[in-house]
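QA checklist item 7 of 12: single-chain prediction sanity check.
[x] sequence parsed
[x] length recorded as 520
[x] structure emitted
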Amino acid sequence: MLQIASTQEMRGCDEEAIRGYGIPGIVLMENAARGTADAMQEHIPDLVHKHILIVCGRGNNGGDGFALARHLIERGCAVTVAALSPVNQLKGDARINAGIIRRMSRTDSAGKLTLITSATLHKLEQFKHIDVIVDAILGTGFKGKLKPKVASIVEWINAQPAIRVAIDIPSGVDADTGSAEGVTVKADFTCTMGLMKTGLLLSPGRDASGNVIIINIQIPPEVFHRSKIKTFLVQESDVRQSFAKRALDAHKYQVGKVFILAGSTGLTGAAALASMSALRSGAGAVVLGIPESLNLMMEKKLTEVMTLPLADNGAGVIQASAWERIKQQCQWADVIAAGPGLSRTGDVQEIIIRLIKEIQKPIVLDADGLNVLAGHDGLFAKRRAPVIITPHTGEFSRLSGINSDKIKNERLDAAKRYARMRKITLLLKGGPSVVASKGGNVYINPTGNPGMATAGAGDVLTGVIAGLWAQGLTEEAAAYCGAYIHGAAGDGARKEYGEYALTAGDIQEELLKVFKGITV
């Protein structure tokens, strides 16, 4: 798993390297500059012949920029350094590197280095030709809104027909939340130091960061291993490692039995998508509990999924009187999924409450299965078996009582608090989807795209998670692998059909390719 650091966590790793291992801070700055120069040379064609402008702030981010200038000059680049503050106002390692650049500019006979101190927007506007602009203005410690002087410079940077490179994080972005209260640098590349930062993965920071490159600044690996960082970016290798090779004599009842409670009049598609997606995900046998008046329709629609007709109210909605039959089927299943298209009647809510209270089997709750949770904080208190819930932001707002805007700005923390408090696993759907475990781990999913904002996509996800969980994946792995696979299928569908025409059925079809690629 790739660790994701908050500002405080990364600062702690830096301090441990400096104090615990005796690595001077200026050495870490030097490694950051060299690594950034290497990354620029790799990703920007013909860099040595380009005019590079580095805009430096007064902190360590600016110090990285001053050190970078030296490395780029050594490689033959023409560099202009625009320091927003006088060099004598800088402190520590930043001042040392700025002083080196000042002395180099005075003795430069090749015309490769220009230093502008106390740079203003007016001075920057004098440049007629710039190929690359490096943002070394503000680092990961920034919070709030850019000051007007800096904001105007950032707007100028964004308006230039140049490649933009941000050091550590684009100026204007909160490194912890990804939020931005005003203008930010719109980077083509972001070279971030040591570990990925959470703000680079959460919008709008994710959109402002472009291609993120992690720079190894030579902090000893043990520092990261001993850290208490519990936020991770899911990678394909993590998903691949979660699958065990099946025995040659495996049969359908050994590789996952799923019971899905879903569907009502007008919402039969949700039931079909969820149940077929569980099969597509490798479950050996799937039974769909459906209102009896809809059963014949579903039998015609679904050939591989078994159906269980349940007593309904005559309008295609399951009645509470179906409970005993539901309970019996739950005993057969390894995993139960409930909610897609069930409707919101009192009978349905009664059934969901009884599932949570009486059935000690793994349960996935989505859509109409989530509605009953609002206002019932103690429902999970006596459960011994695990639960995964999969709300989108609006549903999570109703469940948690947290304003949707606050959830957007505190996505990781809100999910983590709720999961730990309820002792469940929460998959908060969105851009990006986030999985929070009851043990405090958080997994950020890198796959998926806006085209997946389409009816039925969440039903596919429910089926995928249930199918994976029934095959023996852990609770956490079923959730984060399910999110990754579902998003990867959505990405495949976008490549095939584009974002605007993409449907849930397209995502389901793409599961075949994703599983083939992961499990071969």
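[x] summary fact logged: The mean pLDDT is 95.
[ ] second reviewer sign-off
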